[in-house]
Amino acid sequence: MAKIEKLFGFIDEKWFVTDLKENRLGHIKLAFVREVINPLIVRSTDMEATVTLVTIDDREIVEIPPRKMKSREKLLGLMLCREFDVVDEKVRYNVFEGAEMLNNPNSALFGDTSTKSGDTAGLTSRAIYDWAYSLRDVKDITEKLQHNALSEAGTMIDEATGEMRQSLYSTEYILPDTFFPHFITVDNITPELFVHLLLCVLNQHRYGAQTTTNANNMRNHLVAIGVADFEKPINSYTISKAWNEAKSKEKPKLKTVKDYVCSQMTSHYSAEVLEQDVVGLVKWINDLWTENDKTSLKAIYSSAKKSVDNYLKSIKMVKESAGDKKQKGSKKGKEAKAEGDNENSTPES
Questions:
Q1: What is the pLDDT of residues 195-217, one digit of tens each?
Q2: Residue 34 phi/psi, 5° resolution?
Q3: What is the largest CA-CA distance in the chain?
Q4: Could you identify which of 6, 9, 119, 283 might form a hypothetical disulfide with 98, taking C-beta atoms 3.0 to 4.6 angstroms apart as the criterion?
């Protein structure tokens, strides 16, 4: 049994495609609990305030836009593709010099665009990220701290004037032990790209602003997987709203939040939700990475690259090589010759 086929022991093979050109019903919904383990900065135009949403019931909860998570996981995905040599070495994050550069598993999964003059092209994302909302109010899970910008001497003194500089600023942090239910939905995805997605999410731990300064600040827990022909109306906002209605007096803990998200998934997806085997799936993914020579992952990424290459050539986004054309021509010639032989042959008595 090929290594990738073990995935079908967790999620039925019918929910995946073999040809990325397919466009049919069916999706896979991944439910995560994102646990803050170090102060996290989530801000927009206001440099001193956390991004929030005021709900219809007058709560102000923390809101994390999808791109703030997807961008970090997509960046890790590019590094993984470099590790397994399935992306052009000239590709840089969000920098594509021509359509040919999109020919890699990461661009096929997360979507990318080439804006080179005369060679523009784009791929839509197959991983749809939900917005993430906190369970508790912003005032209960954030803290604003004042910082100063020290001089080279390590003080606030302006060496030119000998006076104190006014270089103070404030930053609001989301505190550890804050939990964000979050969902990623995929459809028309190959098993290999699905493995790539899980590796990106489960192994990324640094999010928000100042990632070059702050240490790992988030741990991602896969808690349930739902599959169905039609996507169910469950997301981070509905989870936060339902939690407030049922458990507003209860302080969230990792186990209770995971159990609650699972129960909500089960109510929407019934028997088509994977709970117990999620632990086994995550272990299988981790074991793939810890193999001494990563032989299985190399084969998985090689297969992913081949499927993406075939897809982009079939939609004429990238050109076929001379070898591909020669092989196709040779095949057509053989088929034509075989048909001609069959037509000219005399039936046996």
A1: 999 999 999 999 998 777 778 99
A2: -95, 115
A3: 112
A4: 119
**AA letter at 191:** P
Alpha helices (H) in the chain, listed in sequence order: 66-83, 105-110, 138-141, 191-202, 236-247, 254-269, 277-290, 295-314, 322-344
Q: Which two tokens stand for residue 103?
A: 């020919």
Distances in Å between the Cα of 157 and the Cα atoms of 14, 92, 95, 164, 170 are 67, 41, 42, 4, 19
Boundaries of every domain in the chain: 3-45+58-135+180-340
Q: What is the pTM of this model?
A: 0.86
Q: Which has the closest alpha carbon to 129: 204, 54, 191?
A: 204
Pairwise CA distance, residues 198 & 332, whole Å: 40
The Cα 125–Cα 135 span in angstroms is 28
Give the span between the Cα atoms of 19 and 193, in whole angstroms. Answer: 12
Residues 176, 253: contact at Cβ < 8 Å? no
- The model's pLDDT over 118-136, given as tens digits with 9 standing for 90+, comes to 778 889 999 999 999 999 9
The answer to whether 179 and 35 are in contact (CB under 8 A) is: yes
* Residue owning tokens 């040779």: 330
Give the phi and the psi of residue 229 in degrees, each rounded to 5.
-65, -40
Structure tokens at 217: 């600040």
